[in-house]
Amino acid sequence: MSSKAAAMRPAEIVAPAFNAAAVRAEFPILAREINGHPLVYLDSAASSQRPLAVLRAVEHYETTLHANVHRGVHSLSQWATAAYENAREIVRHHLHARSTREIVFVRGTTEAINLVANSWGRGNVGAGDEILITYLEHHANIVPWQMLCAATGARLLAAPVKPNGELDLAAFRAMLSARTRLVALAHVSNALGTVLPVQEIVHLAHARGIPVLLDGAQAVPHQAVDVQAIDCDFYAFSGHKVYGPTGIGVLYARESLLATMPPWQGGGDMILSVSIEQSSYNELPWRFEAGTPNISGAIGLGAALEFLQSLGIAAVAAHEHALLQLATERLSALPRLKLVGTAAAKAAVVSFTMEGVHPHDIGTILDSEGIAIRTGHHCAMPIMEAFGLAATARASFGCYNSTDDVERLVEGLKKVRQVFG
Amino acid sequence: MELKELYRDVILDHNRSPRNFGHLDPADAQAAGHNPLCGDKLNLTLRLQGDRLVDLRFDGQGCAISTASASLMTEAVKGRSRDEIAQLFEQVHTLLTAPTGEPPAQLGKLMALAGVAEFPARVKCASLCWHTLNAALERAPAPVSTE
Question: B41 to chain A: nearest residue by CA?
Fold first, then answer.
C-alpha cells in the first residue's frame, strides 16, 4: 500500500483498540428487533444486558453444580460452595480489597446501603449526629439514611451541586462538622453521569475521622475501582449494572469496621451454633449473609467481572468516553435540545431535555424506532428538583454500544422534532 | 404500533394549547394527581351548581398525552352531571384499555385518545386527569337534597 493510499484511509491503518461489533455479538438480546428496528440499547445505567459468558456460567452452575452452600458433605454442595466462594474472590480481586472477609454478597446496592444503615448506623449514629450525602444521590442512598435518622434522631444533610452537575466541593467541605458521623455519596451520578472526586472527599472526611460509604453502582461498569487506593470504608455495587444477573450485589466493608458491626439479618448460614437461649455468629463475611444466598447470581456476577476484565476496563472506558464525546457533540448540535449535567469528569451518560417535548414522549417515539432510553426522574428526584426539572431523557452507554447507536439516537431525536414541530 | 395513531393532530394541538388551563379561585373542590413513573403532576379545581360541573381548570406538568387528555376532558365534562361524567369516564377507560369495535358516538373529540390503547405504557398518562377529576368530585360537597 502506498503512503498516499494509507493517508487517505486512516481508519484502516489504525488497528481498532476495541471491536464494538464483536463485543455486541456477545450479547444475544442485542440481536433482536424492537418495533421492526434493530435494537439500540441506551439504558445500561438502569440495567445492562448480559453476555454469553454470564449466561453460560449460570447455566453451567445450574446444570452441573447446584446444591446448597456451606452445608453438605456431598460433592455437589462442595462444588457449589467452591464456585460461590470463587466468585467472592473474583469480586475481591476486581475491587482490590485486602481480603474476601471484606466482601459481602447482598441483593444489590440498595440492600448493601440498608445493611450499613441498619448494622453500622444503629451502633454509631445517635440523636444530634449528622449524615452527609449530596444532592446527586440515587434514592437508594437517601431513603435508608432518612429511615436511620428517623429512628435515631440524627439529621440528614445534602451538599449542593453546581449548575454543570459537579458537586460543590467547597459547600461540601463546609458541611462537614464535628457532628458528622458518616459521609455517603455516589461514585458516579446515575442521573447526570458526574464522576465525583471521591478520593479527595475520603481524604477530607478521614481528616476528621469520618468514615465514607460510596455508592458504586454506576462506577464499577465503567472504570477500574481500587477500594484501597480510594481508601473508602464501604463500597456498594449491583451485579445487573455490570453485565451480571439481577438480585446480586456486593458490599465491600473495611474489615476493621465490619468486625465491629452486629449482624443485620438473622438465620441460617450466619451462625456457628444456635440454642434457644442464644447463638454465636459466624466469621466474616458470612455473618452478614443470613439464609441461602443467591448462589447462581454470585457466580454470574463473577463471570461478568471476568468478562469485563477480558475486554480490558481501560479499553471499555476509552470506548465509552469516545461515545460520550460523540453523543455530546451531536446532541448539542440539535436545535432546542439542552444537555443536563456537563461536568468535566463524566461517565457515558447523556441526560437531556427538548424544548416543548416531555421526556416521556421522547421515550415513546424513540421506542417506536427501536431505541431504548430512560425517561423520568431516574430515582434521583432531589437532583431533578435542584435543576427545576420533573424529568429528563437519559441515554446511557455500555461496552456494546457503537457510534452507529449514537447516529440512530440522533436520527430518532430528529423524528421527535418532526412529530412535535 | 403506529406512532401517528398516538400523536394525532388533535392531541398535538391540545398539548400545545391546552384548554381550560389554570386555576379556579374560589373553587368548590380541588385535587392533585401524580404519576410517579414519569413525574407528571396535575392540579384540578372545579365549581359545581347542584349536581352539575359548571367550570373546571387544570394545570401542572406532564407529557403530551397527559396534557392533551386533561384538556380534552375539561371540554367534554363541562356542564355535565356527576352521572354523565361517571358514564363518560367508563367509556374513556374502555377506549384506553380494552377498545371494542364500535366506539360510542358520545365520546366525540375524546376519540382522539383511541391510539393510546396501542401503547400500554401510556395508558396511565391519559387516565391521570380522569382519576384526579374523580378525586375532586368525591371531595366536593354533595348537593343539598330538597326531598
Answer: A390
